[in-house]
Amino acid sequence: MSTQTLTYWGENTLYINASSRCSNSCVFCVRNFSDGVYGFNLRLDRDPTPEELEAAVLGKHESDFREIAIVGFGEPTVNLAGVLRVLEVAKRRLGLRTRMNSNGHGLLLYPDRDVPLELARAGLDEIQVSLNAPDAVTYLRLCRPKFGIKTFDSVIDFTKRCSKHMKTVISVVGLPGLDIEACKAIADRLEVGFRVREFKGPRDTLGEVREILRS
Fold first, then answer.
1. For strand 167-173 and strand 126-130, is the pairing parallel, antiparallel, or unpaired?
2. How far from the centroid of its chain's Cα atoms is residue 5's Cα?
């Protein structure tokens, strides 16, 4: 695992690459056209262990980072044990602010656990949940979740639960034809923040998205 990129950085943020696996297969995902971000190759051969992630974080602790962001090349909660260890180290040993980007599938990945509560207790300050659709059918077409049509409602439930414990933001990628206002209405209803992310991929992907949203 020593040759794998478990941490990368930008400005004053230390980013944690907890997994390359994901329970979505989004049409517009950066993984379809890139091996990483900020010049770092983020593809992993396997999920790092909690111990490997802890060592990676502590190995960078003397740098001038103000926060730790669990934002890798896959869905972080797929490697929940690793994520919880990173949060505990960041908060209890380093005293840093923490945030994480997630697809919000935690309740489907671990149906017998209260993932939002576990994240909060471990030290997560903020979560951004990628919604990327205003309804279950559009979500199924664009994000292609392995859990099927029920996934969208579970993401909403996950977001609602997270909002009870930490700062919570719904994010969407600004795709052509996507009803951004309808997505924002969901965030407003849940009383959470809302963010539109810029799509930075190839034009042919946008064409594919347009066709999906027209169908």
1. parallel
2. 17
Domain count, the chain: 1
What are the residues whose beta carbons fall under 8 Å from the beta carbon of 133, sequence distance 6 or more?
A: 139, 142, 143, 152, 172, 178, 183
CATH number for 133: 3.20.20.70
In a domain, 155, yes or no: yes
Q: What range does the domain containing 200 cover?
A: 7-214
**Which pair of structure tokens corresponds to residue 26?**
């989004």
What pLDDT does residue 188 have?
99
- Give the largest Cα separation in the chain, rounded: 52
Look at residue 61 in the predicted model and tell me its pLDDT: 66
* Residues 171 and 131 sit within 8 Å (Cβ to Cβ): yes
Q: Are 134 and 141 in contact (CB under 8 A)?
A: no
Pairwise CA distance, residues 55 & 33, whole Å: 30
* Phi, psi for residue 210 in degrees, rounded to 5: -55, -45
114 is a domain residue: yes
Instruction: Decide if 201 is inside a domain.
Output: yes
Segments of 57-132 assigned E as strands = 67-70, 97-102, 126-130
- Other CB atoms within a 10 A radius of the CB of residue 176 amount to 10
Q: Could you report the average pLDDT of every consecutive run of 10 residues in the chain (215 residues)?
A: 79 94 95 83 94 94 86 96 98 96 99 99 99 98 98 99 99 95 98 95 85 85
Q: Catalogue the E-assigned strands of the chain.
A: 7-10, 13-16, 36-37, 40-41, 67-70, 97-102, 126-130, 167-173, 193-197
